[in-house]
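Justification of computing resources. Each target in the renewal requires a structure prediction run like the one illustrated here; the chain below, 235 residues long, is used simply to show the kind of job we budget for.
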Amino acid sequence: MQVEIWSDVMCPFCYIGKRKFEAALAQFSNRDKVDVIWRSFQLDPNQETISDKPIQQYLAERKGMTLLQAQQMTDQVTAVAKQVGLTFRFDKAVTANSFDAHRFSHLAKQHGYQDEAEEKLFAAYFTEGKNTADRHTLAQLGAAIGLDAQEVEAVLQTDQFADAVQADCHEAQQLGVQGVPFFVFNRHYAVSGAQESGTFLEVLQTAFADWEKSTAATESAVMPGTVCLPDGQCA
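Resulting structure tokens:
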């Protein structure tokens, strides 16, 4: 069964939601039959990368609030993150455009390391204070999960995977996604936001039961007959 997760690197609740979903998946007896795919979503496609502006100042300007309100917001989110074992360091966060980070995720997916890439991106942004728009930084993150750093840098010097990122964003619009994280289970059920693990587990169980039924129905609908195989044998 396929679970697609639309998210953005700079979204704190996407990281929190990842942890809560992982906790649910760990309790799910058929977790080995679940294929998780990360989809791209940009909260602010026009965001400039600004390494010397505190995140609270960025939030205050973007949301039209005071610095105190922005600080209170990040403090509240930090407390929520702590409940799922995450340490957020907004005092170190680098405000960055996420487009290349999403391209990096698609490259990692091609090599079978997408979930690892997403984890590294979130940790880099929210905990380590790294610039996730910097291509050398992304190459280092890639090397840490088993990718070739030179390949990562070479790919990011081109426009490779740009279409894939844009396609994910467009598909999100078609599905009516207005915010992230957004979880889609086998294109039949959806969960919006960083819900509690119990909610994710319940949807996993329901979606999986439906998926098994539909798979069994498809298999039983196939009428057996004489076929030819790739090795040339016919029976």
